[in-house]
Amino acid sequence: MSLLVVGSVALDSVETPFGLKEDVLGGSASYFSTAASFFTPVQMVAVVGEDFPKAHLDFLRARGVDIDGVSHEKGRTFRWKGRYSWQLNEAETLDTQLNVFQSFSPQLSERHRDAQYVMLGNIHPELQARVVDQVRAPRLVAADTMNFWINGSRPALLKTLERVNLLFVNDAEARQLSGEHNIIRAARAILAMGPQRVVIKRGEYGAMLVEKEHLFVCPAMPLADVFDPTGAGDTFAGGFMGTLATAGGSLDIPVLRRAMVMGSVMASFTVEQFSLERLREISRSDLHQRFSEFKRLTHFDDLPVLDA
Predict the structure, then answer these.
(1) Are the beta carbons of 119 and 237 closer than 8 angstroms?
(2) 112 φ, ψ (degrees, to nearest 5)
(3) Cβ-contact 42, 67 below 8 angstroms
(4) pTM greater than 0.70
(5) pLDDT confidence of residue 308
(6) What gap in Å lies between CA 199 and CA 210, rounded to an integer?
(7) What is the pLDDT of residue 68?
(8) Tally of structural domains, the chain
(9) Which part of the chain is the Carbohydrate kinase PfkB domain (predicted)?
(10) Of 28, 189, 224, 291, which has the most beta carbons under 10 Å away?
């Protein structure tokens, strides 16, 4: 089934306790589409500037990503610079230059309008709504958001949430959006805003899927080496949506649970190196092996009958 992502493509400069990388490939659409491309072809709608390296576009194309929807505009590409402390939980933003991304207004081609699965990356909620206006009959529309939109564009965000089927947020964003401190209450409050499902990303503590009558908690893979958490949430979403797009249209509970685990698998690879470098190396065989490891780590037998 066709999978469309609309979001950012960026050049990132990232500093962690383990090193510094400058002008590497970043952006929500880049991470998402690379992860999802392990499962299904992906169509990308984004914008880059005159300074964007051709090698990055060649990489995406080689991954099977349809980049016909990536427009090239005069000016510089969106740039982000951040730094992580030893905890690696949250980046300190040192510099943000929107550049050509500031005037990004996604226009879908006829082919894009027929997408069955749509991922609305972390862009202004009004732009997300415009994308929903353009797609014809999607099976599932998912969205991401952030504290900037929750604070500064809440009315527009709430209108968009009425039109999406699934929302990806981290735990801090879930609390901020809902006004609830307890994460379960926060998820249920978000469901009342419109989405049928919410996925709460919790970094090193895993992720949680909440529906009206269903709750599933997936751990994060315990890793000895974590170099750069940038893009982990977007690769989680890519693994999740890519899995759904290959499930023949099913959104049954076993499929959703498998998608959650595969999202965690993809994120666990991403953080092992800077930018998308680790995802350049791995194969589908590596995905299957780590998926099996997840199953082994989380499996346990039923409790035997206890004596009275």
Answers:
(1) yes
(2) -65, -35
(3) no
(4) yes
(5) 64
(6) 6
(7) 95
(8) 1
(9) 34-273
(10) 28
Mode of pairing for the β-strands spanning 166-170 and 79-83: unpaired
Return the CATH number at 12: 3.40.1190.20
Question: Rounded to 5 degrees, what angle do the CA atoms 38, 41, 47 make?
Answer: 105
Paired strand residues for 283: none
d(CA 82, CA 59): 24
Mean pLDDT for the chain overall: 94
pLDDT of residue 88: 81
In a domain, 306, yes or no: no
User: How far apart are the C-alpha atoms of 162 and 193, rounded to whole Å?
Assistant: 6
* 303 falls within a domain: no
Beta bridge partners of 5: 44, 119
H helices of 116-252, where? 125-134, 147-152, 154-161, 171-178, 183-191, 232-245
pLDDT tens digits for range 178-205: 999 999 999 999 999 999 999 999 988 8
Per-residue burial over 260-296, b if 16 or more Cβ lie within 10 Å, else e, is: bbbbbbbbbbbbbbbbbebbeebeeeebeebbeebee
Q: If phi over 0 gives left and psi between -120 and 50 gives alpha, with beta otherwise, what is residue 60?
A: alpha
Range of the domain at 149: 3-297
**Regarding beta strands 19-26 and 10-16, do their DSSP bridges make them parallel or antiparallel, or are they unpaired?**
antiparallel
Tell me if 184 is assigned to some domain: yes
CB 214 within 8 A of CB 240: no
**Does 233 reside within a domain?**
yes
Residue 142 backbone dihedrals phi, psi, to 5 degrees: -115, 155
